[in-house]
Amino acid sequence: xxxxxxxxxxxxxxxxxxxxxxxxxxxxxxxxxxxxxxxxxxxxxxxxxxxxxxxxxxxxxxxxxxxxxxxxxxxxxxxxxxxxxxxxxxxxxxxxxxxxxxxxxxxxxxxxxxxxxxxxxxxxxxxxxxxxxxxxxxxxxxxxxxxxxxxxxxx
Length: 155
What we know:
3 helices, alpha+beta, about 160 residues
């Protein structure tokens, strides 16, 4: 009798969970429609199930959190570049004041029907950060499958 190794069992469990998540995602009308739009533009022969399963098994990446034009002042910009094997669905940003232990501002960029593999967001700050406080910019990227990745940079 064949006995799978612990690594093989773990991989089989990941695929089993991904399959269950595929079924759930296809029951969400908005998510299914977004995947259908992406599939319509995909290479010929791409199958819905394999595309979604690949998305479930692969989290997005944040390639860039560019603070070079952000000095903590209202009107300064923060540039985020994120990518995913299928599509980035949402980006979230928080400017956090460690000195005061409070969020100064939060923002979300929902991509709706503009979901695509690579996404750039240039956020314009709306709040002045206190000059003598420790400030951290936190960003999160989500794909259609609900996977999330976070990145932060302290100023």
